[in-house]
Amino acid sequence: MLDKNGIAKRIAREVKDGMYVNLGIGIPTLVANYIPAGVEVVLQSENGLLGIGPFPFEGEEDPDLINAGKQTVTTLKGSSFFDSAMSFGMIRAGKVDLTILGAMEVSEQGDIANWKIPGKMVKGMGGAMDLVASAKHIIVAMQHVNKAGESKLLPECSLPLTGRRCVKKIVTELAVLDVLPEGGFKLLERAPGVSVEEIVRSTAGKLIVEGEIPEMKLD
Amino acid sequence: MKKVVKDADAAIEGIQDGMTLLVGGFGLCGIPENCIAALVRKGVKGLTCISNNAGVDDFGLGLLLQHRQIRKMISSYVGENAEFERQMLSGELEVELIPQGTLATRCLAAGYGMPAVFTPAGVGTEVAEGKETRTFNGKEYLLEYAFDAPFAIVKAWKGDTVGNLIFRETARNFNPLMAMAGKLTIAEVEELVPAGELDPDHIHTPGIYVHRIFQGPVYEKRIEQRTVRKRG
């Protein structure tokens, strides 16, 4: 079974040289730490920055330079700034190759719910609806089951949707799965030490298991 | 042409109870601090604020919330403010949440003189309820209208006496869009210079979109999430 960093490490293997990538808050942010040497990617921050650099050294924080999580960051060689309309323009136009984000639920059709729990304080969707509606490739990073032990991979989402039929791949602490265009979660890889039976037990939506399922490679 | 006003109190003249304001900034980054303070002093009430976020409890639009001056917020994300949550749950404050790109593009449309735009954000979700949709090349889009607001309040890094603006780093965010979208746009700047001192090639917002401008006496520029790394 993987921890959060393990999930991030596995997703980092999906990131290819030359990609423009938008990382959501939480586990997706950690992916930046594991991008393999020799793979050059440009991280997009939807508040108006291409080329997100590392956190600044203490004393060098700049209040004008933050990421979409409102954290102080830095620029890199080749970074650029732009306004919010252009930022979502490049997202909408499909210029951003890959979006990695968290989810509360994903359906076997690729629907995603990650912004609202009825009855709880709703903070808003931020840029998530724009991102999932337009990204060419969407990978969801999440736990396979919620805190109550219920599967988050469902036949249908029960929570209000963020987007419809958009998720292509899911990486959890247990498995890597593709969402097939015709519907269903296709099991691709098991996390180290996790059995297919455990993944079957933890998946409420339609799970497709064909042949031998290999264990994930992380390095 | 006289766009320069002496201070924030003069800049916000004409903003009255019940009006809709576009307010620039992302989180606490690039917010018009001096104009917000002037609105608190003026005590206008029942405002509708279109702004990506709602500040924190004691800074940004949170100050207007503290004084119960906002009736409705139109935002994409409002998570950082306990007083906001209290007013929202008690029903004192109306909140309309819209996708961030939709918010930006509805400003852009207003500034470009387009009544509406089509966007895929929110298709198939509750954001789409009651909205016109149309299919282009097999993909469904929502019709979203340009904002119509009498005032926009923005913050820039540098400005000149004819209203040209230059923004700095990610403090640009919604500011140039809201500057374009307002019927009357108020810009506060860190440094106000005579016309001719800014390179015309470096202007982000041409002065035609700006009606009143002043240099803020102080900028706190509070950091919301201070994240650093260790040296060495």
Describe the model.
- The complex is a heterodimer of chains A (219) and B (232).
- Chain A contains five helices and 13 strands.
- With 219 residues, chain A is of the alpha/beta class.
- In chain A, helix 5 links the parallel strand 12 and strand 13 (207-208).
- The longest helix of chain A is centred in the first third of the chain and has 9 residues, at 4-12.
- Chain B is of the alpha/beta class.
- Chain B is built from six helices and eleven strands.
- In chain B, helix 5 (100-111) packs across helix 6 (175-181).
- Chain B is globular.
- Chains A and B meet through helix 3 and helix 4 of A and helix 4, helix 5 and helix 6 of B.
Give a summary of the structure in a few sentences:
Chain A is 16% helix and 23% strand.
Defining traits:
heterodimer, A: 219 residues, alpha/beta, Glutaconate Coenzyme A-transferase, ten-stranded mixed beta sheet, globular, B: 232 residues, eight-stranded mixed beta sheet, three-stranded antiparallel beta sheet, 6 helices, 11 strands
Quaternary organisation of the protein chains? heterodimer
Computed over alpha carbons, the radius of gyration of chain A is 17 Å
Distance between the termini of chain A: 16 Å
What CATH calls the topology of chain A is Glutaconate Coenzyme A-transferase
Strand order of the largest sheet of chain A: 4-3-2-1-5-8-10-11-12-13
Strand segment count of chain B: 11
Low-confidence stretches of chain B: none
Give the class of chain B from helix and strand content and strand pairing.
Answer: alpha/beta
Biggest sheet character of chain B: 8 strands, mixed
How many domains of chain A, as an integer? 1
